[in-house]
Amino acid sequence: MAEQIPLYPVRSAAAAASCKRAAYSAAGPGPGAERSSRYQLEDESAHLDEMPLMMSEEGFENDESDYHKLPRARILRRKRGLEWFVCGGWKFLCTSCCDWLINICQRKKELKARTVWLGYPEKCEEKHPRNSIKNQKYNVFTFIPGVLYEQFKFFLNLYFLVVSCSQFVPALKIGYLYTYWAPLGFVLAVTIMREAIDEFRRFQRDKEVNSQLYSKLTVRGSCFIRTDQLDGETDWKLKVAVSCTQRLPALGDLFSINAYVYAQKPQLDIHSFEGTFTREDSDPPIHESLSIENTLWASTVVASGTIIGVVIYTGKETRSVMNTSNPKSKVGLLDLELNQLTKALFLALVALSVVMVTLQGFSGPWYRSLFRFLLLFSYIIPISLRVNLDMGKAAYGWMIMKDENIPGTVVRTSTIPEELGRLVYLLTDKTGTLTRNEMVFKRLHLGTVSYGTDTMDEIQNQLMNSYSQTQSQTSGNNASSTPPRKAQSSAPKVRKSVSSRVHEAVKAVALCHNVTPVYEARGAAGETEFAEADQDFSDDNRTYQASSPDEVALVQWTESVGLTLVNRDLTSMQLRTPSGQILTYCILQTFPFTSESKRMGVIVRDESTAEITFYMKGADVAMSAVVQYNDWLGEECGNMAREGLRTLVVAKRALTDEQYQDFENRYNQAKLSIHDRTLKVAAVVESLEREMELLCLTGVEDQLQTDVRPTLEMLRNAGLKIWMLTGDKLETATCIAKSSHLVSRTQDTHVFRPVTSRGEAHLELNAFRRKHDCALVISGDSLEVCLKYYEHEFVELACQCPAVVCCRCTPTQKAHIVRLLQQHTGRRTCAIGDGGNDVSMIQAADCGIGIEGKEGRQASLAADFSVSQFKHIGRLLVVHGRSSYKRSAALSQFVMHRGLIISTMQAVFSSVFYFASVPLYQGFLMVGYATVYTMFPVFSLVLDQDVKPEMAMLYPELYKDLTKGRSLSCKTFLVWVLISIYQGGILMFGALVLFESEFVHVVAISFTALVLTELLMVALTVRTWHWLMAVAELLSLGCYVASLAFLNQYFDVPFIMTVTFVWKVSAITVVSCLPLYVLKYLKRKLSPPSYSKLSS
């Protein structure tokens, strides 16, 4: 993939200095020294520190200098001294000092284990955080200081604050106070109001979330919860209560027992928990261990059953809050670029002022003249730039929310709409974002025959016939008093008919699962137990609960073809046949699905025949080794996977009573082992997984969101690199990546093997590097190991992949991946999600988009932009994002041009009149120039568009140009500077040459020509006219002409009514604008932009 990328382990500086070529010593003290002894032993045994890290087939022949070929994967050498300070060291020092002060003022409480007492009120003295969630950025005391800091940390606003304050000094005053303080006050007022509204909305959202509490109890000692807001999985998970509390006569007895819960200290891991429950008032005292099965984390939902529990963690110590980063104020790339340009303009301002003072000969109090020149030329950096940009951002947000093609879209962060047009990396969640999390059964393959959605009625008929024959045979056997098991075992082995194979396959699917049917209670409140005969088994009143939506889809399919799961508890389950007969099966053993085994199984006994059967289903990679030889399984699994179906292989094995008793004895003995319990249990189970009869192959489709495939294709054509980050299983994530066309059908997929050490990570990265143009699929655990030892190299390789899928990701890992891409690539990132587990990723990204879906509104409320469907993201980016960026780029450069041209005229005026620090235009002329005379036409540029929205959607490749930043670059900025200098010089020199007697005529001629030039330049900049643009031009011109009658203080009214005034103004205006119109015409003819080719 990248032949020039070598892999290097993390190592100390001393080791790096001692190595001349490719051998490296062990990592020195630091993070690497804190690894567990297991990793150290593995690394030492592999002799990784003594062998070269091979990165090519030929061998490692390059010296260490090859490592520095990578622009981003190199080891950065820190700059020291003055160079370091100038290049950003001062900012680092200021930030460090601020962080130090914050840490001093807000010392974090040390997290530690805690004991929660029941029945001992006097012992409950330990203080815990307030049980509330806070997503607000400020409080009552920090709001004003915080908002002001966010504003004045930008050079543009800080500069104008200093300039405005200088007008309080009489010696430096060159105009009226309102000419400086009014624009600055307007900007601050708008910003404070906007932040206040956003803060109030956050407060309301927090209040709504904090008002939701748990207040339920279960009688059976178990309940199902949904954890989609925590880990992104919408599967229902079974939680078990403490067993000794389930034997209490009444609920009130919970408050009279003497017991306590000891729990570990708060931590990030949402998949583990360690604690103990001790009851002291029993003889002897009862001790029960607590694990993840006994916990309900905050932000989870009780899906079925009722619970009452002891609160262990509150507020900021809960798992959900600890996995959520604090909200930050996002700043767009355009704002950062403009901040740099204003610094360049400030240097030009200082240089111009120094030149003026130098030409003045440093006579008199030259420092005072220097400051006056700085104030005279201060319009080089226009305060109206901030005003126009903020108003433009508000206009873009309004356009987005009013777009009928993307209904329900909400702009929650109005400061970064241009970011939608600069994105390179798109990181998306899977469940609820790309998919609906609605599983639909699509295919049943028996080896010789395959059934699809259009042939399910055949399965239903064959199943009905098969159960009718079985029922008649059973009746006959009962009449002759022949044991059915003996009769069946003595029958000769013949090839099974299709009908019997369908029967066996459907029955296996209906039995091999962890699904529980639930019937809603219709009795009075509080009735929680019903006799089995009194339960309502109607289909309308039944819902299914399971830890996997795949299993629910399979059981719903068996119901649709006639075999219905009607009841299940911990020891038995009941099926209803097409004829209405109830079949009862005793559950002897259940082997749950794990990511390591990739399969699950169940051993059941048929109560009517006493047959014991071991059913198993799982992924084809796990099942192909345990089923009998066949020649079709691998090929059909590949075919279904290419169709985007999630496949499961179903098999069975009949067991005699002796075989099962032998297995049960060995299984129970293995579970009692103290050492290597997991391995021994797995070995016993594997003894059954031999020569199993292959029954069928099932295919389930996870329904995609509407138009996901064309949307992803559009985004890829627009140049975006798409990564999928999900908490789901690897097989599921890979399947969805293919079905959604995130990974094309012809594209290879490299599944990164699980790695736990540096050596394994090194070998797997070598294998991955040899793959070309293939998508990467990696788990969160393996990703963590790779980033620990080979962060630069891994990110560099992954960024070259056409698509990346990260599965089993925690919320913290998602945010970490976003930050890695930002740091290593310097590109803009966008995160998309719909669950609470996506909030950290959304907040860490440069642009966060939330989708309102089944997983709640937490992600959409925390996002910068909220959409109702994934397909709306395409138009949001390629139409609104593109338009917002190009409009803001044109608007900002034109506003700077407006300030540069008047500053050029001031410089020419001061030069002609002996370098006097006297303003050319005073009072209302300066205010009117930036407001009523030119504001409406300039601001109307927010309505401009180079191509129609339909064309932008049809040709998403136009979006690629935006990532290069060509609409606002040093080149375009310098072009506008040259235009400003040319036009400012022509206007001022023209007025000086053509005026005859009085100086006031110079002001009238030059200012009128200046206003006309600005109006004509707006017309020159516009690419597509809108009727409001024409109204703005005419309105501004009318305002200026009407105001001439009231500007006696600045103009000679009789003079401006003469023909001489008109022709002089017209001549100067034509000379300043006509050459630019000619140049624009020639450029469009000789080198037209890409969008103009499409328009034509």
TrEMBL record:
Compositional bias annotation for Polar residues = 466-491
**Binding annotation for Mg(2+):** 429, 431, 834, 838
Record-annotated active site? 429 (4-aspartylphosphate intermediate)
Where is the organism placed in the taxonomic lineage, from the top?
Eukaryota, Metazoa, Chordata, Craniata, Vertebrata
Q: Which residue intervals define the domain P-type ATPase N-terminal in the entry? A: 124-181
GO terms for cellular component: endosome; plasma membrane; trans-Golgi network
Q: Where is this region: Disordered?
A: 466-498
Q: Which InterPro entries match?
A: ATPase_P-typ_cyto_dom_N, ATPase_P-typ_P_site, ATPase_P-typ_TM_dom_sf, ATPase_P-typ_transduc_dom_A_sf, HAD-like_sf, HAD_sf, P-type_ATPase_IV, P-type_ATPase_N
Q: Please state which protein family the record places this protein in.
A: Belongs to the cation transport ATPase (P-type) (TC 3.A.3) family. Type IV subfamily.
Q: Which SUPFAM superfamilies does its entry note?
A: Calcium ATPase, transduction domain A (SSF81653), Calcium ATPase, transmembrane domain M (SSF81665), HAD-like (SSF56784), Metal cation-transporting ATPase, ATP-binding domain N (SSF81660)
From what organism does this protein derive?
Tursiops truncatus (Atlantic bottle-nosed dolphin)
Enumerate the residues binding ATP: 429-431, 551, 593, 617, 646, 726-728, 808, 814, 837-838
Topology in the lipid bilayer is annotated as: Multi-pass membrane protein
Q: What is its EC number?
A: 7.6.2.1
**NCBIfam families (alphabetical):** ATPase-Plipid, ATPase_P-type
The main location is Golgi
| Gene Ontology BP annotations | endocytosis; phospholipid translocation; retrograde vesicle-mediated transport, Golgi to endoplasmic reticulum
Cofactor(s) the record lists: Mg(2+)
Q: Where is the P-type ATPase C-terminal domain?
A: 861-1088
Protein name as it appears in the record: Phospholipid-transporting ATPase
Which top class of enzyme applies to this chain? translocase
List keywords of the entry alphabetically. ATP-binding, Golgi apparatus, Lipid transport, Magnesium, Membrane, Metal-binding, Nucleotide-binding, Translocase, Transmembrane, Transmembrane helix, Transport
Q: Where does the sequence pass through the membrane?
A: 178-197, 344-363, 369-389, 895-917, 923-943, 973-993, 999-1020, 1027-1047, 1053-1079
> What is a GO molecular function of this protein?
ATP binding
